[in-house]
Structures are given as structure tokens and as C-alpha cells.
């Protein structure tokens, strides 16, 4: 059980009655956190030390209303308070890690006034369903921020998914290219293969597979910005004879392919559409084919709880986003396909490092972000997003897997080494 120690007396007479109530609730809840240590510095200079041990974190309450945001919004309120500059920290990832390490008792923060507002948030979020038209709207809300924006912090291949760091001294670009090779080798790609990619991104994987492994590639996206960018890259690379870029929803795809890859796209499918997604993969893959999914996952014990919550990512970053569990993915493959999972590799800590590299580049590009027309609130929102994800990966609150599955005619054949 955590401990709460006051290092000086708070001047709570400066606070509104609501803020005093909120502060009392939040501090009482934090005192029950069993893991780690958190130091709070309040607006009047009062210092509080909560808990002991690791992970350790420190934050500054800049405005008493920060407690109100936590009381009425829970974890989402914490993110909104950061965006509004009601609190700050020199180690935002450390703060996220502290809360992620206490993820079960953290749910008590959702039990204050936040619980009364959750049904309203859930109702509003229900309008973000990933139907064919809804998916385009949800994807546009994130990816159509503009290619120039994403270029500021992604590596030159424009890979917006976890890299794989084979060595400690690998750069972001080297790790991104290594990830592409890992995928292509697991799929055993060669000139005789036709690869379907569901979720083009900015075309990095499609170009890499065609250029270095000689296969044909059909890749599809529903982002207008990404479609235009990928088409231009294919043309510039002189690979139009081998790479076809489509502007189509996965539900509208036809044909048969002996290789399918989908990198961190399943998070945009949505829980209620998973059966149709897996059934579509089944129809599109040949009997002797291979499928590789790279997916951000949540522990199965928290899957259904997370479905009911509208967190910071769903509210501000990915309107139609959700995280599957590995069990949900394997169950979907078992129920709706004839495919058999053959290999699963966890790369969650690689994603934490990828996010740290993205954040370093993002923070270094502060002036360029402003020049693109994004204000300080947006910059803090994205900083929080990157730290929120990195901290969650480092504490194991979420992870990322690469899952390789085979069609019935391939079973028993040796798997390629990534």
C-alpha cells in the first residue's frame, strides 16, 4: 500500500470548494497505489511524496484545477490537464510509467465524477464506428494532418510503426529498415510472390519488398494524403510495374494473394468488425499462403474494460482506435479463417525505443511544427501521446506482436527466421 507524506502544509484556502474536494479524492486515491513513488509540487510550493520504490516520478501542479480534471476525467482528464498546462513534468514518460505500474488501482480514479461522465463519452465515441464511411473519416482525422508534419519526426522511409532494434547502437532509420527485412524474411518473399498489404502507410514496406525481394505488391490505404504520397514514391522509384497502390477499404478488396501483410492496421478495425476483417483475410489468402500481422496489443484481462473506456488516444489521436489482445487475434483466426498461427514475436520494448526516437525528433522540430500552423496545445497533445505510449510499453501495459499464420497447404513447412 502506498504512503502519503506532506513535506509542507498546503494553502488549500486558495482553492475553490470543488478543487478542495477533488484534491482530497485524488490524493486519497494516489495514497492507495502500491507501486512506485510520486513527488508532487503544488502551486503554493507545497511538496507531497506518495509511495516509495520504483518507478519514481515527479510532477508540478501548476493550477489547482488539475485536481478537478483528474476528479472529473480520470486518466483522460490527466491528459487534458497536460494539454491545458495545468501540470507539467521534466520526465513525462516517468509519470506515465508510475500510473501504468498501478493500472488496476488507477481505475479508482475513474470512480469519482469521471464515472458519471463516462456514459456520455462512450455515447459520443460510438459515432466513430469503423464502417466503410466511418473508417475514412477516422483515418483522415489522424493521418491527413499532412505528410509534412509526419516527415518531421519519422525516419526517411516514413515508417509509422514499431522499428526493431537488433543492436543497441542502431539508429531509428537502421531499425526501421531492419524491421522491414524481418517482415519480408518471415513471409519468405521472392519474385514469384504477390504480396497484399492492407494499410499502405506512406509506401515504405511496399517499396522495400518490391525493390529488395522482387515480389509484386498490391497495397491499399483509405488515407487521401498517404495514397497521393505513396503513388508519387512508387512512380519516382520506377516500380510502377511491380507496385500497385489502391484507394480501397479492406472490405472492398478482391482477388487472391499468396502473401498478406498488415502492419498496425488492425487497431483501426474495431471490435465489432473483427469477424469480417478475419473473414476477408481468409478469402484473400491462397491455401499455401502466409499472413503476417503486426499489432499493438493489450493484456486479455483488460481487453473488455478498455473497450468500454474512452481514453486519451481514442479522444484525441485515433477516433476509431482500439487495441486487440493476442487471445482475441488468435480466436479470430481460429473462428473465421482456415489459417494456423505459426510464430509470435513480442517487440513491445522495441516500440518504446521507437517512440523515444520519434519524440526526440518531434521536440527538436518545435519551430517547424509551429510553422505548419500547429499551436502549443497541439504540440503538448502530441508530446503527451508519444510519452503516454512509450510509458505504457515500458511498463507492459500494452505491447506489440508480430504474428505469422499459414494457410492449410503450408502446414509443416519450416518457418523462415526473421
From TrEMBL:
Q: Could you tell me which InterPro entries the record lists for this protein?
A: CFA/CMAS, CMAS, SAM-dependent_MTases_sf
Q: Domain of life of the organism in this record?
A: Bacteria
Biological process according to GO: lipid biosynthetic process; methylation
Q: Does the keyword S-adenosyl-L-methionine apply?
A: yes
Q: Which SUPFAM superfamilies match?
A: S-adenosyl-L-methionine-dependent methyltransferases
Q: Which residues form the active site?
A: 389
Could you tell me the keywords of this UniProt record?
Answer: Lipid metabolism, Methyltransferase, S-adenosyl-L-methionine, Transferase
Q: Which GO terms describe its molecular function?
A: methyltransferase activity
Listed Gene3D superfamilies: Vaccinia Virus protein VP39
Q: What Pfam families would the database entry show?
A: CMAS (PF02353)
Q: Which family does it belong to?
A: Belongs to the CFA/CMAS family.
Name of the protein in its database record: Cyclopropane-fatty-acyl-phospholipid synthase
Q: Which organism is it from?
A: Isoalcanivorax pacificus W11-5
